[in-house]
Fold this protein.
Amino acid sequence: MGLRCPVGACGAENDPLADACEGCGVPLRGYARVASHAARLFNQGLEAAREDRLGRARDLFAALVYWCPLDIEARNSLASTCMAMGDRAEAQNHWQQVLEKAPGDPIATAGLMALDRPDSTELSLPASPVTPAPKPRTQKKKKKGGKKARRHKKGRSGR
């Protein structure tokens, strides 16, 4: 399996261990390091937020948004953290930027609605529809002669 060049106009397949793209010369190892660092920053931000270290979480999400300004999830996390810290203006700024890039984003929409409530410091996101859990399977009794009592339809996997 190859490594696709991140430059949109190039998109060349490269050896996964290549230092640079064979098509355009962009440094692939640097790109891979930046991509993995972004994930690390995001996870550290989530961990800090869960531990109620909001200043640290805000700083980590802000660094991620600085390096990856199109990362909607990071910007939503930054806005949520700002709101939890009471910085409503900064939260509004980031949620408006999310909606410019992703109109109708449910987190940003809920965040801006929460800002309309003067005493709110938390989001209340709409519940996602929950599908009921499948019923447990029971074994069917076999008819005499070893044949199954009923023939079952194929499932989604085609088994």
User: Anything to note?
Assistant: Confidence is low (pLDDT under 50) at residues 125-142, 146-159. Residues 88 and 116 are 10 Å apart (CA to CA).
